[in-house]
Write a structure and sequence with these properties.
Length: 281
Amino acid sequence: MTPDQYCQEKAAQSGSSFYYSFLYLPPEKRRAITALYAFCREVDDVVDECTDASVARVKLNWWRREVDSIFHEGNGNKPSHPVAKALADVSQTFNLTAERLNEIIDGMEMDLNYNRYADFETLRHYCYHVASVVGLCSAEIFGYRNPETLKYAQDLGLAFQLTNIIRDVGEDARRDRIYLPQDELLRFGVTEEDIVNARETGEFKKLIEFQIERAESYYVRAFAALSVEDRKKQRPGIIMAAIYQALLKEIKEDGCHVLRQRISLTPMRKLWIAWTTWMRG
């Protein structure tokens, strides 16, 4: 299996909405974004699958060395993992940097240090590393002319992560992780016990509706920063946003029941949204 084939399989297996936004890209850009996505999955899996935090830290440090080998080959220093090899082939072409890849790893490592977030500013710092940086790397791959497009990419990444947090509240709580800001739980009269014990009170519903409104506001902010000249190149992000906004709508219309179930869109619906969004340009 080649490095590119490994990355393709990793992306396809995840079932993520990101996969559907890649489908209409030219081959070289699709190759690069798939490698980036596979990298994110690999380092995220380290944290999610390791029950021993010390082992997870060792593995993340190993990935930091792999990142270093991507950008500093020579004297026997070569990437060994298929994903790192795939990234090494595309990093210079698409301005992917060691700094940004390491920022993503920093974000994954935060999950080893924190399972609660005091306020939205603290949460936003986390989201920047695990999602906004991915958005910035993606914007480099898709291409842009207007520097404001990087603002779009950063806010869009934040919107995606906020959507993930809303969708996964129950699933995260079962792993003793609560990403909803602690001060907002207090403001809406929701306790950690409500979340851990899947008590979907009226107060909890209002809290999630508030989270949905904030996520939607970041989609609005992102697209306000996207210039007309860059819309065509940035269509994969627009596709992803269309899928995620449809998911938010589904969660809201379903009554915000995110504690006992993980609401998702079917692969066919994602594919339909991707195709119709691409055709609209």
